[in-house]
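job 3f2a | input accepted
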Amino acid sequence: MDPCRKLCKLTVEAIGRFRMIGEGDRVLVGLSGGKDSFALLHVLHELRRRAPVRFEVIAATFDPGFPEFNLEGIRAYCRERNWEHHTVSLPIAQILEEKRFTGAPCVLCSRLRRGKLSGLAAELGCGKLALGQHFDDIAASFLMSLCRGQGLSTMGPNVATHEGNLRVIRPFVLAPEALIREAVSVWELPRAGICQYESQLEEGDRVFFRKLVDELAERIPNLRSNFCSSLGRIEAEHLLDPRYLFQSEQQGNEP
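job 3f2a | predicted structure (255 res):
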């Protein structure tokens, strides 16, 4: 199957399974300028034309103020396709310096970016914020949480936020990164530019666990599909949370 068609099919499956988009929704798509977010925007615009429900798609780019960030290229790409596009900005390097932030810069940047996009969503009347994380991101996030003692969790496909009625959705939750890479090869996408903290990110947990997923996939056949199946089938009584240990016995004793 053509990679673009396959990506659309998996996206439709994810949207339906996790009830991501409904009639009359206004969906704000976080367009970072990377391949994943551009692919998501392309796919959602295609689905919007063919879907049995009516919904709107609006793109938004967070400008971190880096000299290398290609905001004009991203704007021009959206303009050529008549895609509605908005921009929110913050001088990330200046903020990090003022706060004397010593942790991984992506932690604070992600928090600030999400806040700005959430504010824009409210301003535009959007109830959904769509992000381009794919299944490899989901798997890596789960392993990070597991190994760092943060519980059995990952980036959910349809998550409520603290910002009013806004929900964060991830329509590529079932799509592997390799498929997205194949799909975008047919589009001439502009370069987003390089994050000035890229060298620090290469040494971070997320990159490490993404590489670990690739290494595991070389050894274990169908790793990604098996991983996806397991994340959707939680055997709570066989974990170490005491709240669930005797749940089935208690339910069996109920009149």
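job 3f2a | The mean pLDDT is 88.
job 3f2a | closed
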